[in-house]
Each structure stands twice: as structure tokens, then as C-alpha cells.
């Protein structure tokens, strides 16, 4: 593959508190603000508490999930008295860090999240971007505290609904398991280490280092699975089976236990071999998702370097 070149990545945003009960990102951002880490070498850093109202009440959101409010349609929608707070806040963030899909947008946006699922350290990408995938490769090579994995989504930039899509380049960091409203030292340290490695990589990239071609593994979502439900009441009738619980990324094969009904019956998996992700994630109950199923792929990366003037 031919070497790919990119402009220097000099303006970076680190965001936390997009979901107000996910504590790690909020405290990573506050610590960076306390240390006044707004300029480090070639990188100018903007830190943002994304959803301060939700943070104040320690809830995922107050009216609408902020991390679903960054589509072009919502960012350009007129503000009225009935506009949800999170849509207003998305437009404020877009004005601060964007506008989305413009030359004025920050070069890189990293949004920090927690999950109640046993996902470890997982980077989420909404497009095939050689630059951010090289950052993932670097973090994966340098982190020893936990496995580092990647989830690769595929959607046009204009339709991408999450905060990191505001930047020219962007990704989310999901770290767990951590209960909502709780701060764990090990999870905080993992997220902070990933942010530090990201900034290290940017310094090396901006200073002219070439990052050689290579391969990375990633997961792509095939489908989502809901809990078994009562056809009349629509209430769930089973929970995640103990043999599946906490086994995110472990291959799920036909016949493996999937759910355990409240009456004690095991529901077994039927279908192709796939990897379950975000198993029993608290925030997905309202979305009627028990877990995602994904396939593992290998992505070949070209070498990359900074574009010369």
C-alpha cells in the first residue's frame, strides 16, 4: 500500500461527561483542566464537559441521549421552546469544536465513555480512518494494563450521530466494567493512559515520524439481540445467562447458553459464530438490546506520515 499523508494534528478536543453518569471521562477532563494541560508541545488541547446538566444530576441524559444528537439534521435544526436540552447542547458543542465537516473543526476529537459491560478498553471508530486506526495500533502496542480492542462502525459522516464525528478525525474510548455513578481507580487509570498515549502519538506524528504499515484486528457489528419478552406485556422474561455474562468478545457458538429465563429455562444461541459485545449494558435496556453480535476482521493499514508543506 502507498504511504498516506495527513495534515498536522494540532488542535485536539478531549471530552468527558457526554453521559452524565459515566464518571471516568468527567474526572480525566477535570484533572487535565486542573493541570492546565491546554498546550503540550505541538498539540493544543481543548477539554470539555459535554453534558453539564446530566453530570450535575448524575444521569445519562436529562431529555435526550446527547451522543445521538450530532447528525447534520439535528445540528442544523431550528431551536424552539420545545427543543430538548441535549439538542441545544449539541449545537453549542458543534459551534465550539466544529462545525462538523468543516475546515474549522478540531483536527481530532476523543470522547471518553464508560460501560457497565466487561469490555475492557475498546476504541470505537465510525469510519475507516488510517490516522485514528494508527493511534489505536499505538495504544494497543503500549498499554499493558488491559487488552485494547476496536469496534469499527460504518456510516457516512453526515449521518454519524455521536460526538466524535464533529472533529476532522475522531474516536470514542469505552472503558469498563464500571457501574454508573461510580469511579474506579483501575478504570480511570486505563482511560488516562490511553489519552496520554494518544497525545504521545500526535507529538511523534507532527514531528515527522513515519508509522509503518501493518495490520490490526477490529470488530464490526452484525446485529443486535434483544432480551426474550412477554408478547403481551413486552416485559423481559429472561436475563443474560451466567455462562455468557462478562464474556464480551468471547466467540459465541450454536448451542452456547445465551439467556436464563426467570422460570429457570436456558435459551441457547442459534446462528453463525460471532462475538458478543456490550453484554448486559445498563444503558441498552431502554434501547431493547441485550448485546451486540460482531465479527472479527483484519484491517491492513498503510504507512502514514505528516504532509510536508
Explain what the structure shows:
- This protein is α/β, with parallel strands linked by helices.
- It has helices at 23-34, 52-57, 72-75, 85-97, 130-142, 185-206, and strands at 4-6, 11-16, 39-40, 43-49, 108-114, 120-125, 148-152, 169-176, 214-225, 238-240, 257-261, 266-268, 275-277, 291-301, 304-306.
- It folds into two domains: 4-218 and 300-306, Aminopeptidase, CATH 3.40.630; 225-292, N-terminal domain of TfIIb (Single Sheet).
- Zn(2+) binds at residues 19, 22, 113.
- It is found in: Apical cell membrane; Cytoplasm.
Task: Produce a short descriptive summary.
The protein is built from 6 helices and 15 strands. Strands 3-4-2-5-8-6-7 form a 7-stranded mixed beta sheet. It has a 3-stranded antiparallel beta sheet with strand order 9-14-13, covered by helices on one side.
CATH fold descriptor of the largest domain: Aminopeptidase
Kindly report the spatial arrangement of strands forming the biggest sheet.
3-4-2-5-8-6-7
Spatial shape: globular
| Number of continuous helical runs | 6
Low-confidence stretches: none
Structure characteristics:
metal ion binding; Aspartoacylase; 309 residues; 15 strands; Aminopeptidase; AstE_AspA_cat; N-terminal domain of TfIIb
SSE inventory with pairings:
Layout: E1 4-6, E2 11-16, H1 23-34, E3 39-40, E4 43-49, H2 52-57, H3 72-75, H4 85-97, E5 108-114, E6 120-125, H5 130-142, E7 148-152, E8 169-176, H6 185-206, E9 214-225, E10 238-240, E11 257-261, E12 266-268, E13 275-277, E14 291-301, E15 304-306
Parallel strand pairs: 1-15, 2-4, 2-5, 5-8, 6-7
Antiparallel strand pairs: 3-4, 6-8, 9-14, 10-11, 11-12, 13-14
Helix pairs in contact: 1-6, 5-6
Amino acid at each position: 500500500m502507498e504511504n498516506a499523508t495527513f495534515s498536522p494534528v494540532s488542535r485536539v478536543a478531549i471530552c468527558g461527561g457526554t453521559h452524565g453518569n459515566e464518571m471516568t471521562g468527567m474526572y480525566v477532563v477535570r484533572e487535565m483542566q486542573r493541570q492546565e494541560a491546554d498546550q503540550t508541545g505541538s498539540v493544543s488541547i481543548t477539554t470539555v464537559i459535554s453534558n453539564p446538566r446530566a453530570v450535575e444530576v448524575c444521569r445519562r441524559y436529562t431529555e435526550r441521549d446527547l451522543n445521538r444528537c450530532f447528525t447534520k439534521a439535528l445540528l442544523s435544526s431550528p431551536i424552539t421552546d420545545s427543543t430538548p436540552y441535549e439538542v441545544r447542547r449539541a449545537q453549542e458543542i458543534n459551534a465550539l469544536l466544529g462545525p462538523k465537516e468543516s475546515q474549522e473543526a478540531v483536527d481530532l476529537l476523543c470522547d471518553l465513555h464508560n460501560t457497565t459491560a466487561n469490555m475492557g478498553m475498546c476504541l470505537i471508530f465510525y469510519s475507516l480512518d488510517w490516522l485514528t486506526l494508527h493511534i489505536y495500533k499505538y495504544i494497543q502496542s503500549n498499554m499493558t494494563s488491559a487488552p485494547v480492542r476496536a469496534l469499527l462502525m460504518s456510516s457516512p459522516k453526515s449521518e454519524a450521530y455521536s460526538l466524535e464525528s464533529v472533529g476532522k478525525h475522531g474516536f470514542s474510548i469505552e472503558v469498563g466494567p464500571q457501574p454508573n455513578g461510580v469511579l474506579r481507580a483501575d478504570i480511570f487509570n486505563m482511560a488516562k493512559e490511553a489519552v496520554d498515549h494518544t497525545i504521545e502519538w500526535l507529538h511523534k506524528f507532527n514531528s515527522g515520524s513515519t508509522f509503518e504499515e501493518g495490520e490490526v484486528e477490529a470488530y464490526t457489528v452484525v446485529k443486535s439481540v434483544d432480551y426474550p419478552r412477554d408478547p403481551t406485556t413486552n416485559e423481559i422474561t429472561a436475563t443474560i445467562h451466567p455462562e455468557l455474562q462478562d464474556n464480551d468478545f468471547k466467540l459465541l457458538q450454536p448451542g452456547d447458553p445465551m439467556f436464563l429465563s426467570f422460570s429457570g429455562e436456558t435459551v441457547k444461541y442459534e446462528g453463525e459464530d460471532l462475538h458478543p459485545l456490550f453484554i448486559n449494558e445498563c444503558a441498552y435496556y431502554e434501547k431493547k438490546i441485550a448485546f451486540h453480535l460482531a465479527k472479527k476482521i483484519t484491517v491492513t493499514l498503510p504507512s502514514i506520515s505528516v504532509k510536508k508543506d
